[in-house]
Amino acid sequence: MTADQRPLNVLFLCTHNSARSILAEAVLNHIGQGRFKAFSAGSSPRENQRPNPLALQVLERAGISTAGLRSKSWDGFGGEGAPPMDLVITVCDNAAGEACPYWPGAPATAHWGYPDPSEVQGTPEERLEAFRRTLHAVRHRLELLVNLPPERLDRTVLQQSARDLARPS
Fold first, then answer.
1. Is 112 in contact with 20 (CB distance < 8 Å)?
2. Ranges for the Phosphotyrosine protein phosphatase I domain (predicted)?
């Protein structure tokens, strides 16, 4: 990336913006090497929604900053003054099936589905393990994205590159 290029802006979407999309935002900002700027949002975050405490806990244990993470609506990313998105990725099946707002600039889109770790029942350790598994799955796919050669991140091929990463490896 040259000095005059801005990072690729990536928006991760989920329904409530409390677990999977939060994990993806934090991980990509952590490993993005300045080439990526990640954001997350939800199609219908609940009133006073906050990131799931278990999501924050696994991020902190992995040495990934949780500073500034908050649940927010996707409405804030489709209007005036919103950062222009290059890539929008849904990370839960509910958000993938919903009618998305208009994204200025017509960004590339992809769906990377992950099971919802917050739905796992069991002991506190079993629930935490579900979040750890999701974190590792998200991180694996994001490491592949970050390590794509620059020509695979060009706007004209970005959508296919992101969709290719959704396939099982």
1. no
2. 8-148
pLDDT of residue 21: 96
In a domain, 76, yes or no: yes
**14 assigned to active site:** yes
DSSP code for 73: B
Q: Which domain holds residue 117?
A: 8-161
- pLDDT for the residue numbered 3: 42
Report how far apart the first and last C-alpha atoms of the chain are (Å, whole number): 27
**10 pLDDT more than 80:** yes
Q: What is the CATH number of the domain that holds 73?
A: 3.40.50.2300
Q: How confident is the model at residue 5 (pLDDT cuts 50, 70, 90)?
A: confident
Point out the catalytic residue in the list 62, 100, 128, 146: 100
Catalytic residue from among 19, 92, 108, 158: 92
Residue 114 a catalytic site member: no
The two tokens of residue 107 are 């960004």
Question: Is there a domain that residue 60 lies in?
Answer: yes
Catalytic position from the list 8, 11, 14, 165: 14
Asked if 4 is an active-site residue, the reply is: no
CB atoms within 10 A of CB 109: 19
Per-residue pLDDT averaged across 88-114, rounded?
77
